[in-house]
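User: Here's a protein and a ligand (histidyl-adenosine monophosphate). What would the complex look like?
Assistant: Let me lay out the input and then the predicted complex.
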Amino acid sequence: MFSKVKGFRDIYGDEIRYWKKFEDIFTEVFNKYDYQEFKLPILEKVELFKRGIGDTTDIVEKEMFVFKDRGGEKLALRPEGTASLVRGYIENKIYTQGLISKYYYYGPMFRRERPQKGRFRQFYQAGVEVFGSNLPIVDAEVIKTMYEILISCGIGDIITLNINSLGCPICRPAYKDKLISFLSSQKDHLCSDCNNRLEKNPLRVLDCKVDRCKSAVSNAPLMVDHLCSDCNEHFKQVKKFLLHFNVNYNINPYMVRGLDYYVRTAFEFNTEFLGASNAVGGGGRYDGLIKTLGGPDIPGIGYAIGADRVVTLMMEKNIIPDLPTKISVIFFNETFEEGFKLLDLLRSQSYTAIYDYEMGSFKNQFKKADRSGSRLAVIIGTDEKEKGVYKVKDLITGNQIEVEQTKLLEEINKIIRK
Ligand code: HAM
């Protein structure tokens, strides 16, 4: 007997319905907004993430699954999709098309974090990346797509959009100095992680979840008050367009996010229903990243939604996804041909149609139909064949009717809609 690796899990059974619903919803929304799918590799060279996400981030310092393959190359299971997609954008020279490129991706990501509610070592993200525009309307539209997905999943009422501006290479360095000197005065009140971050990644101290750090930074200088005029205007416009799109937001000047590539807009959808892992998804603008990874100086913005977390919330809210109606067809050796025709007819109408492979006695087949979760059983025995009818049994109410063969679909519809 083998057991799963810690932090990894099997997903099956009823839960799959929620995953499918989420997948259908984001696919539809991304299509509507003209995003193309990008299928990314699961393995990349370690260096890509070090350079892309940042050497001093938790992801790179502590959380990546890294190994040497048999050829001695240092590889990592991807902890996120942005660095990979930027690599793909540069490597495939997509930028030579000179257009705005809008991509989405979906699949497993891997981080060796401490497992807890909503936090796994293999988790799934549905994300987007938009390359080629620094206009604030793009930021707002990108955020709107995420909002639409979460609303369509039925969790709109338990999420809050938090936004912030993280400045740019023009205004951030001077702010960073100010922050470091403030944090140095609070050293004794900060947790050991934050003492480490203080010099290396001081902005991260602002969104440390440890209580004493939270109170230590309550009077810290904030990036939003130190933006250069371009960043200030950009942020103002993003907020204006969000309002225009009816997307409500909360400004959280302490939200920094855990990846180093962000500039200007950063955003996160949070919920109180997931304990400490309260981010359902997040993202932001990363105008220097394509250049940092060896490409041209092209701006970008994107986000990723944590699928596991969305599904957990949908399940907790008891948002039951529709099931395709399942129908059991009961037939016998003498009505074999009619039975298969009937199965094909039902499947052509998108019903899930099943039958007993063993083709046992009526009693046996009926018992199996009842246990299968079918909504209806349609019976075609020799009597029915001769009379040109089917018997239709409602497996919820127990009612049984006889219908003319040509009227079957009509009658099934009537019963199901009741
Ligand atoms: P992130 O905030 O690290 O951003 O992850 C996005 C979402 O993935 C989180 O909000 C959360 O819902 C989910 N997530 C992260 N870690 C875990 C975990 N261990 N278990 C379950 N769910 C998790 C990024 O990854 C960026 N690449 C997003 C982005 C795209 N920014 C720009 N473009």
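Summary: Residues 80-82, 111, 113, 118-120, 123, 125, 127, 129, 258-259, 279-284, 302-304, 306, 308-309 surround histidyl-adenosine monophosphate (CB under 6 Å).
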